[in-house]
Specification:
The protein is mainly α. Helices cover 76% and strands 0% of the residues. Helix 1 runs antiparallel to helix 2.
Length: 89
């Protein structure tokens, strides 16, 4: 079984990266939460530091690449418009 990179960390940072773009005012809190979650992978002895570091990098790359996909971007823009209409930004 492989532990590199940490899939949980990758997922956390991918989601935080997208959500940080969706709600920029919450970006620091979202990325801090991803980092805290990633750290638990080490604390719980499920991963090495290198696994988590690689997961962070991969997750942020995934978030960046998702933003370049037209279908994803259309859904993202629709979500942003809906949030702005609801007074959330």
């Amino acid at each position: 079984m492989s532990s590199y990179p940490s899939g949980h960390t990758t997922n956390a940072y991918a989601m935080a990266g997208v959500l940080a773009r969706l709600v920029p005012g919450k970006a620091p809190a979202l990325l801090t939460r991803a980092a805290t979650y990633a750290e638990t992978r080490i604390t719980c002895e499920q991963h090495w530091r290198s696994d988590v570091t690689a997961g962070e990098a991969l997750g942020l790359v995934i978030a960046e690449r998702l933003m370049s996909k037209p279908a994803f971007r259309a859904q993202f823009d629709a979500a942003r418009a809906e949030m702005e209409a609801a007074g959330i930004s």
